[in-house]
Amino acid sequence: MTAGPETAMHQEPVLAPERGVTRRLLRYMKPHTRTLAGAFVLLGVATAADVLGPILLKIFIDGYLMPRRFPIRPILTLAIAYSGLLAVSALFNYWQLFTFQRVALRIIQRLRVDLFGHLQRLGLAYFDGTPAGALVSRATNDTEAIKDLYVSVLSTFVQNGFLLVGIYIAMFALDVRLAVFCLGIAPVILLIMAVYRRQSSRIYQLTRRELARLNARLNESLQGMYVIQAMRQERRMRTEFGEINEAYRRLRMRNVHLNGLLLRPMVDVVYFLALMLVLSFFGLASRSTVVNVGVLYAFVNYLERFFEPINQMMMRLGSFQQATVAAARVFQLMDEQDVAPGAGGAAQGPAQGPAQGPAIEDGLVTFDRVSFSYDGRTDVLRDISFTAKPGQTVALVGHTGSGKSTVASLLLRFYPVTRGRISIDGVSLDDFGNEELRRKVGLVLQDPFLFVGDVRGNIRLGDDDISDAEIEEAARFVGADRVVGRLPGGYGEPVAERGVKFSGGERQLFAFARTMARQPRILVLDEATASVDTETEEVIQEALARMRMGRTTIAIAHRLSTIQDADLILVLHRGEIVERGTHRELIGQGGLYHAMYLLQQGGSSARAAGGTGQ
Question: Is 13 within the bounds of a domain?
Answer without folding.
Answer: no
